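tool_call: predict_structure(chain=1)
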Amino acid sequence: MDKKVTCFIANGSVKDLKVTIDGLQKVSCIEKVYVVAAEKPVDELLKDGVDWIKGDSLKTTDVVKSIADKCDTPYALIYSKNLPLNLGAFAVDRLASVADDTSAGLVYSDYVKVSDGKRKPNPVIDYQDGSLRDDFDFGSVLFYDSSALKSAVADMDATYKFAGLYDLRLKVSQKSRILRLPEPLYTEMETDTRHSGEKIFDYVDPKNREVQIEMEKACTDHLKKIGGWLKPEFENIEFDKSDFPVEASVIIPVMNRVKTVEDAVKSVLSQKTPFKFNLIVVDNHSTDGTSEILEKYAADDDRLIHVIPERKDLGIGGCWNQGAFHPACGKFAIQLDSDDMYIDDNVIKTVVEAFYDQNCAMVIGSYRMVNFKLEEIPPGIIDHREWTPDNGRNNALRINGLGAPRAFYTPVLRKVRVPNTSYGEDYALGLNISRKYQIGRIYDPLYLCRRWDDNSDASLDIQKMNAHNIYKDRIRTMELWARIKMNKQ
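tool_result:
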């Protein structure tokens, strides 16, 4: 094969860079290798066929533009990690061949992770229109068609410190397909060995706020270009048009949470409000003693409605529908997970006031992360400040969750309904509601989110994580298509 590829790699230690460069230079179709570094690398690295680009990171717009300028071959390979890259046999040739055959603007592949000396397959997932997360896992090897890359760079009108590669990917997707090759073409060292439950809050960690602002700007620009951006114009709600038995209902879906459900129930029944409220607990056929605890509280306090569904095929979303359509459900339906508890006795009152003050169909609060002993753990308070009144519903297509606790105006909730799943059901519901209605925000923490080994997302294997991410990307894709259709109409 002719020399068709120029490689661009992140800076690292001399030892690691040498391994990566030597490996790349053994590939016959690679013409040149560039190291992206803030300072000139040592001379022993800059041998024939190796040069450098001045830059702090591959993620900056300036470096992305330099890559486009330096690439004189049909394809550009970007390796984003600074640890040694171990390419499989004929891996680059395979990427080039697939790119040739499909005219894809970006090709990426499965790979193998090495962690603690053990090799583990790491399949990635297919890219969709709704794969708008800035942390979408392409792996560390990105194979761009140079013409698509250069065209995307020509369209860049903003300069980013952190969102350059993200902006590149979005702009490439506007004119070209992004293709996953489901073959493990390389091996890389795993650098983040945390469990899945420890990673999921990275995007709302306050220390990453500057990064998130840039990512939001890049995504908003993308949505505007493809017709998926929504103006901050919302349908008005007349709350006095509805009639309900109580003003508010807290809904708790539960199955086998004997260790935590009592704390959750107590935190609801101790609430102080100037209006009537109740608690609807949808007990999804618990077998561990949870049902007996709920029966005891329901016998002592008629505000607790203990519901055991007739159906045996309900996920968390299906249980939510059981609560929302129950004749005892109030005008506002407020969420509480069976693991968690309200932070004080004014939460219900605060949430209901937010509906009237902000004229919204949904309210999203904030929470404090705690361990099982209720001691605060990092990152502390999760307030989702990226959810702004003007752009929150657009930025919601980029992030992987909308925050909690969530509350809904029941007529809208009953109209939209919750998908019958046990992961991402709340996200799908929030995206749908935000298409037409304002989402209210409360930035003070309203409940304690208890993290422990029995959380549903505490430690997921790669197959389960991929299934979750595929579902959320599909939800985003459907919502994006719906918004594009609405804008055209």
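agent: Residues 462-488 form the longest helix (27 residues). Proceeding to next step.
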